[in-house]
Amino acid sequence: MKSLLPSIRRYAGPLTMLAPVILYFLIFHYTPMAGLLLAFKDYTIREGFFGSQWTGLDNLRHLFFSGDFVHVLRNTITISLLRLVFGFFAPLLLALLLNEVRAVGYRNAIQSIAALPNYISWVILAGIFLMLLSDQGPVNDLLAAGGFRRIGFLTEGNWFIATLISTGIWQGVGYGAIIYLAALAGISPDLYEAAEIDGANRFHKIVHINFPALVPTIVTLFILNLGSVLNAGFDQIYNMYNPSVFDVSDIIDTFVLRRIQTMEFSLGTAAGLFKSVVGMILIVAVNAAARRISKGEQGVY
Amino acid sequence: MKRLNLFDVANIVFLLVLAVTMLYPFVYIVNISLSTPAEAMRGGLHLWPGGVSLAAYKAVFSDSILVRAFANSVVRTVLGTVLTVLCCAVAAYPLSRRETPFRRSITLFILFTMVFSGGLVPTYLLVRGLGLLDTMAALILPVLLSAFNIVIIKNFFQSIPESYVEAARIDGAGEWRILFQVFIPLSGPVLATVGLWTAVMHWNSWFDAMLYISSDNKQVLQTILQRIVIDSSTAFLESGMSAEKAASVTTQTIKAATTVVTVLPILLCYPFLQRFFTKGIMLGGVKE
């Protein structure tokens, strides 16, 4: 018994710090997880969580067989994959080009300017783009002055998707380049010297030294991106879309939000449950793959 | 100094064009906000403000809802950031100490929230059930502690030499004192990084405010901006204006001025943000 007292004293400090933390995570993270059970109930505010009826798989069945969820899911995946195909390599390319600039001041200035939009909310960015890309906005004025037709960037389905993808790249490219630039900065100068002695020019060096040095980062980021395929970019879409493009741009998150607005909580939870479960499977699978491909060196956690 | 070849010139010009594309939307919005109504109505690129007028800014700053929303955003950001940094440090400290019992299980318990979440509807119902709807707590509490921030701080704490802790213990310091007088003062860069992340997140957040806040006088700036810019409802702004004043602004110039006011704090802090965010990417890294 004598030896217990000092150990209690020793543990008391860490445990008094951790108790509220554990409580916080139980309330704000684990309670909503338990709340996912609503997907199997017919929830109403009046009856509450415990009072409402169990309905088994009715909500999930409704989701996949009679609602517009399948359509919404297809939109989500389409937009995500298009972002991946057109946007994934943009930061890599920018990093390689920035790395070739020898004037350090110029390089840093461009890098800082390019990363700026990353820090600004989509409410603001969407507001600006709605003005720039509107029918009477400067972009269309420019097109009209050049003899082209005015384009419905925000109102024609395919053009709207193109607008989402390109403004998305515009926002993220500079920030995305930073991680590649860090990897490039870590390359030993010896490699370049050896290559020069062997008669390599700039392009040889980019292809045979810079690019291989970035491959682990590229693989990891690519796989991570695949893991978030059910996130099509809610902040951007919600602030940029309008009824004329709902058909192509309604995604899981906007679908769930509408279920809250119409008080169809159980249906919304069912959609959210699908997203959370698929998201978790993807993250775990993708992380295992990243570890394997890079032989245990990479992985997020 | 090596000579510039054709590739260098093309590269430099390309990057310059890129930088211009990055900046142009901001230049455009500033110029519109400063334009007279006649100028703002005119088409074209608006590379320069036409006939400088501060009427739109006067309208923005004389509107009680907007001024209130600005103050709410400032309070939310400052309070949310201070609380998050403090609480995450308190959570990270015991997790960084080898002698903490159940350290590994508790870390896993926290990390699990990074891969799985209850999602929007249960979280909304929780906030509602806790009676937090239409309070500032609804904007701060659900994002108070995050596994990611805790892990970043914990990793930094683990790099602090054990000898500091031993010396403090010999001097009779308890755990709380070691945290506040040894660890926190030694962790400036990582706490600043987490703090700036949190501050930018709070300043830019609009979705939670849109969902949880219903009273106009509790609303944050981003959500009011969204109402004005995206939903084009400037009616509540113009309703209180004299006819003479209303003629000096347009929906466009008011939208633009509100946008500039919302984005300005971020622009002013940008030099710090850029430095610490870059550091943060390395801290968070891809590896633990």
For the largest beta-sheet of chain A, the strand count, sense and barrel status come to: 2 strands, antiparallel
| The CATH architecture of the largest domain in chain B | Orthogonal Bundle
| Mean pLDDT metric of chain A | 89
Q: Mind telling me which CATH architecture of the largest domain in chain A this is?
A: Orthogonal Bundle
Over the alpha carbons, how many angstroms does the gyration radius of chain B reach?
A: 24 Å
Task: Describe what you observe in this structure.
Chain A has 15 helices and 2 strands. With 301 residues, chain A is mainly α. Chain A has 2 domains: 4-50; 57-293, Orthogonal Bundle (MetI-like fold), CATH 1.10.3720. In chain A, helix 3 (58-65) crosses helix 15 (265-293), helix 5 crosses helix 9 and helix 14 (252-261) runs antiparallel to helix 15 (265-293). Chain A starts with a helix and ends in an 8-residue tail after the last helix. By secondary structure, chain B is an all-alpha fold. Chain B is built from 16 helices and no strands. Chain B has helices at residues 6-34, 37-41, 55-61, 64-96, 103-115, 120-129, 137-140, 147-158, 162-170, 175-186, 188-204, 207-212, 221-229, 235-238, 243-246, 251-284.
